[in-house]
Amino acid sequence: MDEHAYRHTRLNRWTRLVLEAGMVLSVATLVLGLVLFALSPVEHQEVDMTLGEIASGIMEGNPIAVLDLGIIFLIATPLTRVVAALIVFISDREPRYVLVSLAVLALIGLAVLTG
Q1: d(CA 17, CA 7)
Q2: Burial, 88: exposed, middle or buried (Cβ in 10 Å; 0-12, 13-18, 19+)?
Q3: Contacts of 64 (CB under 8 A, 6+ apart)
Q4: Which of 81, 94, 98, 102 is 20 to 30 A removed from 109 (C-alpha atoms)?
């Protein structure tokens, strides 16, 4: 296997691993939230929660907070894929792709900050 094919295979392996782990983590968290919601004797209102409220809600056993965490994991999975690709590109000394990955992360960060 030549060097380019090896790098491509390694990138695909890490991408698959990150996406699979993110999917499993988010689905497991969402299922847990749904089970907690179904078993909860208290009626919970759907409200927008900050990250701090989600953390405290999880500690209190609030199923809505657990569901929100599952959604955050789901949203973060593609972002984590870009970070994993960046790490592979850095280790492979691929400056063009490192710059592209950094640009993608910068654009996502800008979008998050500006709403």
Answers
A1: 15
A2: buried
A3: 33, 37, 44, 45, 46, 47, 49, 57
A4: 94
In 10 A of CB 67, how many CB atoms?
A: 23
Domain definitions of the chain by residue range: 3-114
Question: Which DSSP letter does residue 43 get?
Answer: -
Q: Rounded CA gap, 84 and 37, in Å?
A: 34
Selection from 87, 70, 71 nearest residue 18 by Cα = 87
Tens digits of residue pLDDT in 42-93 = 777 777 888 889 999 999 889 999 999 999 999 999 899 999 999 999 998 9
